[in-house]
Amino acid sequence: xxNQSILERRERAVPRGVATATSVxxxxxxxxxxxxxxxxxxxxxxxxxxxLNVGHRHPRVxxxxxxxxxxxxxxxxxxxAYEPYIELAEKLNAxxxxxxxxxxxxxxxxxxxxxxxxxxxxxxxxxxGIIAFAGGFHGRTLLSSAMTGKVNPYxxxxxxxxxxxxxxxxxxxxxxxxxxxxxxxxDFLFAADIEPERIAAFIIEPVQGEGGFHMADPGLFExxxxxxxxxxxxxxxxxxQTGFARTGxxxxxxxxxxxxxxxxxxxxxxxxxxxxxxxxxxEVMDAIGPGGLxxxxxxxxVAVAAALAVLDVIEEEKLNDRANAIGERIRAAITVAAxxxxxxxxxxxxxxxxxxxxxxxxxxxxxxxxxxxxVTGAALERGLVVLTCGTLGQTIRILVPLTxxxxxxxxxxxxxxxxxxxxxxxx
Length: 427
Ligand code: PMP
Prior knowledge:
The chain has 2 domains: 3-54 and 318-425, Aspartate Aminotransferase, domain 1 (Alpha-Beta Complex); 62-316, Type I PLP-dependent aspartate aminotransferase-like (Major domain) (Aspartate Aminotransferase, domain 2). Helices cover 39% and strands 17% of the residues. The protein has 13 helices and 17 strands. The chain has helices at residues 3-13, 47-50, 59-71, 83-95, 110-125, 142-147, 179-192, 218-231, 282-285, 301-316, 319-339, 369-381, 406-425, and strands spanning 26-30, 33-36, 41-44, 102-107, 129-133, 165-168, 199-204, 207-208, 214-215, 234-238, 262-265, 276-281, 345-350, 356-361, 384-385, 387-389, 395-398. α3 runs antiparallel to α10 (301-316). The chain is globular. The protein starts with a helix and ends with a helix. The mean pLDDT is 97. 4'-deoxy-4'-aminopyridoxal-5'-phosphate (PMP) binds next to α5. 4'-deoxy-4'-aminopyridoxal-5'-phosphate (PMP) is lined by residues 49, 109-111, 114, 137-139, 205, 209-210, 238, 240-241, 266.
């Protein structure tokens, strides 16, 4: 089997709407390495899009899943519940950065988590409005697409979207939007479209993921907290990409001066198994009556077993500290690359913990998505999987497993540097 022969079958059998960043096909993977069907090895700086903070097939996760497979794989929580689901909820409630008692419910995908957080916020407040941020990403289902703040490729031709979803710009150093501009946009929104008393919640990524690894201005959270006190507008932190030690803290919102009412989690929660959740203040979480929440596969026992092991691994292997150490190593390597004159232009190195990104610019200092694409292409050829993001695809983002050793990390960074050189040569 060759990559090319599978690619041809893929093009005939699967719609192009689900785009793939690489044109090779996986055969096996271990920690921070993947091998394709032709036996070529890659260092993995994508982590399955922020899913593999504990790496591919962590032995603890594999053992927990194997044990669960021998017991039962599915009963449906709504038919006959199981204790590990409760244990996982208890563990997340204990560490959740919310005020007072917390409760947790599980789903399967990140989009399902953000949709359900909206349902819960609407039920708890009795209000319809949701304010999200331009450039944000909350999923690809219809309501979550509506909240995603980017038309191309997520919304073009796909509407109408559910009503009462509004967007304002995200203030951050790297996006160049000031807090003042955001607050003015909010005033305009309240004057032109909807009164604050009809807004149920703000939904915000503590660090925008797909949008370009922009960390929100702490002043924004203080402003949101004031609006919560004045108007009772809830705060939903979308932690799908930032959660579980990626930013050097368990949750990205812990870098901010405010506690959210609800958190959405998915991706690295279950180390490669499909599991998501909404964690929140107990009285908010109980707003919806019995039967109003759920899903046949929601909180799959296999995924729950994996997640319990993931939480143990994060604690035992001190992955918050490791995220900071990895982040420093990445920053050092990219800082050196940025001082060379044989690479594409590098700017705006940013991000907390191991959620690090930088922009590729053209000679005039404008974002250069085509050059960033050349970088990831050259990296793949040389044995590194790394992704772009950002509104123009100009951002190279690194989501390496936090369990990666220094040798593999340095190997990946050396390949990335070579790719930055090759992308300039190919210009
Ligand atoms: N929220 C955020 C912040 C995300 O990064 C993503 C996925 N990239 C989602 C929601 C949607 O998650 P899923 O693809 O599992 O539906």
